[in-house]
Amino acid sequence: MRTYEKNDNFLIYNIPMSYFVIIRGPLGVGKSTIAKKLAKFLNADYVDIDKILRKNNLDKVRPDAECIPAENFIKADDLILPGLKDKMHKGKIIIFDACFYHKKHIEDIVRKLPYRHFIFTLKSPVEVCIERDGKRKRKYGTLATKAVHSLVSKFDYGITIDANNKTPEETLREIINHLQNKTLINKIYDKN
Fold this sequence. Notes:
The protein is an alpha/beta fold. It has helices at about 30-40, 50-55, 70-90, 105-110, 125-135, 140-150, 170-180, 185-190; strands spanning about 5, 10, 20-25, 45-50, 95, 115-125, 160. Helix 1 crosses helix 7 and helix 5 packs across helix 6.
């Protein structure tokens, strides 16, 4: 359990310090690779929102819609957030991985998890995302990659990171540097 006396500008007494990180961006930008590496680095729980949607049959797009509706993401949140809240109360860090193309979905998580949080939007040109998508085992295809890229690009949220022409390790280092400047993970970071 992580318990600290001081956290930036406010004191925490006998309350485990925890936070969550949202890694968002288009298909093929490298979110999953980076989120998994970040979770390993921080000894955090990794949450794959797409996997939760698939497992609960919430990943369907209605014929009259351009994407999975925000309500399906909210239903997925309702399934997982109570358990994650318990873990966070015990000091666990959570890393969320998804495209997060609905601002309402991000706001739902932020509202339901009353903990410190950090949101990173990863960006890369659509052509790069299409190329990367074509190289992975579970391909979504050019049309899906373009559609999701367009949806995610409608808004930025949190800290924006240009992942173009960077290795996953370089992007990860940039995220860790942001977290290091804003949290008490310095001791963890210095050990590695």
